[in-house]
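During the first year of the project, the team set up a workflow for recording each protein of interest as an amino acid sequence followed immediately by a discrete structure-token representation. This format lets reviewers and collaborators read both layers of information side by side without switching files. As required by the reporting guidelines, we include two representative entries from the current panel. The first entry is reproduced here exactly as it appears in our internal archive.
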Amino acid sequence: MAQIFINDKPYEFKEGETILDIARRNDIYIPVMCYLKDITPTGACRLCLVQVEGIEKPVASCVTYATDGMKVYTDTEDVIKQRKRNLEFILIKHPLDCPVCDKAGECMLQDTTYEFGINEESIKSVKPNKPKFDWEMIIHDANLCVLCERCVKVCHEITGCSALKIKERGYNNLITTANDAGLQCDFCGLCVDFCPVGALLDKPYKHSVRNWDLEYVETTCNYCPVGCSVKYGKHENIIYKSSKVEDSYICSLGRYAYKYTEHEDRVKTPLIKADGELKEVEWTAAIDNIKTKLDEIVDRYGNDSIAFILGSRLSNEALVNYKVLADGLGVKKIVSDLSFYHPEFFNLYHKKFNSYEVVGRLDDIKDSDLIFVIGADLARESLGIKWKVMNAVIHNDSKLVTIGLKKYEYDYFTDASILADYGDFAKVFHDIINSDNKIYEDIRGYINKAKKISFIVGNEYLEAESQKESVFAFVDYVGEDKLKSFFYTFDKPNVVASFSLGVYGNYSADELIEDIDRGKVKCLIVADFYPFNTKGNYKRLRDLVGKVEYFVSIDLFKNDFNKGANVILPVLSHLESEGTFTTIDGRIVKYQKVIEPELDAKSDVEIAYLIGFAKGLQLESYPKAVWDNEIKGKNGYPDATYDEINGLLYKDKDYNVNKIEYTYKEQPKGTKEVYVNARYHNNYLSTKAAIEKKSDETYRRYYFDVDRSVVVGEDAKCNIPNCSLDKNIAKGIVLIPKN
């Protein structure tokens, strides 16, 4: 194997590695400022200079590739001198605002200056007077920018947004938006995390608390099932900022949507309806009321008159404890919220793979030769999956084909982008297989050349496609031997556990709606479920819930669905409690308590325990006990204790690929209304994060308001006010924000 000598010691390397790559792998320190391991190097800062034998001047180690026998020296007198000069050159333009800069205490430039022993400016200069930009959630002060290009590279190569660029040249150049207007991106804030100075800052955090006063807590984001790690900075039990952790990224939800715990609709204490109004009571009174009513209903109508609806934002432990409670009460009618959301797709999925769980792991996406994104607006449905796709395309040269109801923001990276007019995805699959049109011939060529193919199916497909088996027949066409992974997207974190722990499948939303309508369900207990006022069983449940004799809502908020409940029990949020959930690819992740609750709420696990205790049942009252006694080693979950869960364990899963019998049937052309997540929002919880705080001195807005604009494609009829025509939307399609 080839060798390189660094400071006279030999090190092996692989072709394509830079001097800096080898040095870092072997714990040899070389200072950097512009370098990031996740992006292509730029060599902009010139702080990573090293001396290479045979080359007159020092070279940037981040862009100099190793060759066999190369001799490198990292700390010669000339190298150290040149590095210091380059740092002083950076400081010529940089304002000396450290005492008032929000980045102080975690600034790479500040730390490197101290490291190099620079205590004062060697060259006095007039500092630049460049513009400052307000980009909604992000503030950009161009005067502080050191032009390392990290933000531009990250935005292009990791997120796929390509929303930033370098404008002008020389002394006047600056980072600005690609369109020279507002920032149009995913607002993941990775540019802020990777900025080595204070040029890019989170607007809600600016001028609030000094970094060294913050206590940081690392946990797992609970907005979607990807399971990204996130770090929250808090002071005096208030969260002021959040950021990515090493080897993990976060989206706008994980970064900015954490203030929902302070929303005015938060249920702060148990509520019981009396004289037509919900009134505050103690927990003992609320639990006694539930026990008494359950006894009465069972005596009059039997156990079969009680039903549960369990949401998939509940933790593994909460799902199990509610299920144990239902079993103890003799209740068989347990409905997963997944049963309200296109259960026909999930049932077909099970028929195809003999499992509800996705095929493959998330890392399989970036290792694929060809990726099909089918009706999945990843910017709204799963940024974590989008980043895997971008990584595959940009760094692994994977082919990308998108089939959707709109042109996605990352269309620039696609090899083929097709609109499914009238929501007829099945026709697109049919044309890929049969048409002699060049774009379809090209896609067939990609399929023939690829050895590893991944599929990502999303909300647009589930909402619009009437022949839902068509995508599984398309997998048959591609071939089982080439199938690397198959993912469906979802906007709640614990969809996999709802399948694995037996919550889904025994009793359907259709059956529940029918039983309520016929008066067979007299008591409905709903935990963490909000049916949007959209269509189908969501709307039917909202219309019929008033027929239920006794309605118990276990929720974070008062809303237009549970306002008619007989009892509302306040529950702790993921930020105020702990537990585990199962990611989309079966990884077991733990979330930690970030802040102490400042209201009279309890965890879902404890609520199930209290109701069970009142009924004479023995349930566990803590997540650790539920995991260790009810989940560990069962249903494919690892035989590891709660304390051993470290985010690296996966549950076992098995699948078979069965052939789907299907023949395409031409569909009538007409308008299809499709409900989607509003931009930057995920289901219901994020809408409560958009709060404002005002005082005599400051105004802060936390998170984005819901944009309820309705967009339509050509040949679509829209009866909703404020519809706007968009040429990037498929024909016959109306996209309606459900939030």
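The second entry, processed by the same pipeline in the following quarter, appears below.
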Amino acid sequence: MAEKKLCDNCGAEIPPGATVCPECGWLISVVSAEERDKKLKELAAILEIEESREEPEHKVSESPLTAQRENGKVGLTNGRVNGLNAREGFINGRRNKVQVMKTQQRQRAIVAIIAVFLIIVGSVIIYFAMQRETGKIQVDGNFGDWTDVPKTAVVSGVEKENIAPSELAVYDEPTGLSFYIKVRGKMLAGNEEKRITDGCYILLDTDANKYTGYSMLGYGFDFRISVFGVGGYVQSASIYEFKGTDQVNWSAWTQVSQVKSACGARELEIQADKKVVNPGSNYTAILIMKSWDGITSEPFVFSPGGGYLEARVLPQADEILNESAVFMKIELLAKGNDAIMNDVSFQIMGNARNYTLELSDGENILGSTDVGIDANSVTINLNNYKLVRDRIVTLLVSANLTGVCDGCSAGVSPTIGLRGNVPAVIRYAYQHEKNFVGYYKEVPAIPVIDGAFGEWKNVVQDNNRIGNPDVDISEYAMTTGDMLSVYVGVAGRIFNGTLLPESTPIIGQGGGQATEKPRITGEDTMYVYLYTVLSANPDYMIEIRGINNEIKSAVFYSNSNGTWVQMQVINAKNSFWQVEAEIPNVVRSTFFYIEIEFHSWNGSDANRVILSSVGENSGIIQCVPAFVIAGIIIIIYRRRKLCDIDD
């Protein structure tokens, strides 16, 4: 019986003729263990004999033949031993070669997988990079991009449907700030026969600071987007930056870039590059549309979430106030979504101080604040007051005037500030019966320039009406003393002006592009000219400018050899339809008369009235018959020449 052969590595039994261990894969030598041990013993004996030989003290150089013989012995021995394992080396070599080939195949597969992975990842990165570069909104006239963007439904009161918005939306993304506008009629219709465009204006307050930028609607607008078109096609689309310090100077707008725009039958989309306009999160965007014939829409606010707050402000103060006085009513309506109000700010009017201003819903006081001795403005915190969508809430602004002096005036300015989680648009409703300021318990004996008008009793009525009620003088008066005071009331809204003091452009001849024709200011202006005896030209002038029912400047000038020279800034206050102002009475000792003129912002409408007065020491003039004085006034008036104002 043949002896069993065991694996040198794991000890498992090796079948006859096998060269690899079936258990562990170890290569099996073809030489038997006995033969291998025998050969190893012989080799060890030879090595011991060689090592036991003593070398002579003085070694003699070996001859080449001896060296060859000794080397031959060693080589023969090594060859025998190594030759015994020749087959084993051959087998291991083949196995190593196979393993190397398999390793190379695995490496190639890994490289291929990595390459495919990198191609896929690279494609995804490139795709999203392209998406980020182009953005969601593509300005191409295909308005499907706006399908899932929240829209704000608005109602316009203008009759011209081409400038009456019905839906608005805004979308802010890294590549651009995009706007969507839909009107009831035809977008950018214009007048094709006269080649006059319709205009779309978007004004942006990007820093939430009303003291920077173009002053309008209680905001300071830093950028303006203007898109003009006719026949349903865009003719020009540009963005402007306000770079002036005079906040009512329309010509301070400077064009900085073009904007993308595309027009549909009733829709318009506009996109501003974020590299030019990057407003951040706390910005306000207002839309105003203007027809080719000068008719302007109301202002509307863009809301990123589709919701906004609409406020309607109405005066409530009587001429005589009691201890519990109501100054203002604010009607609030949340559109699109529920809204949260954080606070309301007010400008303090009148000369009364040291009282408490309150804001209530008619039943509960929502907030209050003290009006201190030096207070010019105050803010009432509402502690996140919630307004339910489409439900009108009426708030009353009132005061407890206990302790205020009799005859003192108290009230607030109609210009308010609303702050909450949605943008707000504020509209004003004027009425002649009420004001925002009144007198506590009694009116003063002489005029006081404080925004309350109860002391102006002896006024002259003017029932002659002109086209524009905002500059149509309906009543006026003048008093003299240490100060010369003037009062004027109009049939419409005083110092209304226009929000857009430019005409929409006519398509130019070069390339069909629209050419803007900006005007300097949108203010209505009141002039008061003072004439002394037999003066052909006015000696003094009061100039009061205003827009959106807010006085922007009030200056007193003197005439120096035909040139108007500014003397001082004067005190002037207004209500919705009245204005009062005073100057030092520089002409109180002589006979004089004044001429009052009211001019609309574009000069298309004007109204003029004349008042005369007899000074304290003009006895000779007092004896002149009235018809002679009237004749002199008429002659002087016809000879009057207007003087240019010296800037």
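For the second entry, the following points were noted during internal review. The longest strand covers residues 324-335. The chain has four domains: 1-45, 143-301, 308-440, 460-645. Both points are flagged for discussion at the upcoming steering committee meeting.
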